Amino acid sequence: MTADEICLIERAKEGDREALNDLFSREQKYIFNLMVQLTGEPALADDLTQEAFLLAYQNLKKFRLQSSFRTWLSKIAINQFLKECKQKPKHVPLCFEEIKIPSEKYHLERIVFKRELQQCILHSLQQHVPKKYRTALILRDLQNLSYREISEVLSWSIGKVKTRIHRGRKILRAYFVSSKCKAFAEKDYLCICEGILEL
Amino acid sequence: MKCKEVRSLFSEFYNRELNQQAIKLLEEHLSGCSECQEEYLRFKKILKILGKWKPLDTPCNYLNGMKSAGKTKVDR
Predict the structure, then answer these.
(1) Is position B76 within any domain?
(2) Model confidence, pTM
(3) Residue B38 lies in a domain
(4) Tens digit of each residue's pLDDT (9 = 90 or more) over A171-195
(5) I need a labelling partner for B44 at 20 to 30 A (CA). Which of A23, A95, A171, A176 fits?
């Protein structure tokens, strides 16, 4: 943690609104995106982010600077997400859609497709990888956190983090194999995925 | 190494977490097995595409909502 961040936190703890604003502004995009990645639902991600920031605001005095502010905030937000999962029944996508990929010469369209493919992979991750693996996988492969950082956010040992990430990736890979998705084949760009209509 | 074992180690291989002997065995298998090679390429692509996530903008400033909510319980 930088000296600047420590100073901001101390000022925010004492009720300095400007410091609080600075501190929260730096992290809101990160936390909101983390929630979008975990839930796949921007509206729900918005609610969870709001709840996480409110909790952080109410508990700021209890923050002992033992981790970075982002790690502490991520912990709070992930707990909110896990609570929400317990309350809400799992969404089961029913639609199947077939998409033809535009040829190389339509460069713009291919860019659009690549985004869709990313959404499709993320959607598969959200729907088919159990959350006990998914959370660690998202922190590693989308947020690019180190094992140590993930172990701090999730309060897990580094060994457990590694195991869960590897297991989660295996489940995701197995899903793509069993779905017979050919989106990644070099020549055949025919993609059949669940949930693509929701993008 | 058999195909099933090789495929079960893709994630560790990708993160360079295997020992030298396992890496050697896995690489030998991959160089001679086009199906596993293709599977590994696909696995790498999945992670690579995920890693290119472009962050979305937040719908609001969360501190603004707290000016009132800080005093009372948040209204949802």
Answers:
(1) no
(2) 0.78
(3) yes
(4) 998 888 777 665 554 443 344 444 3
(5) A95
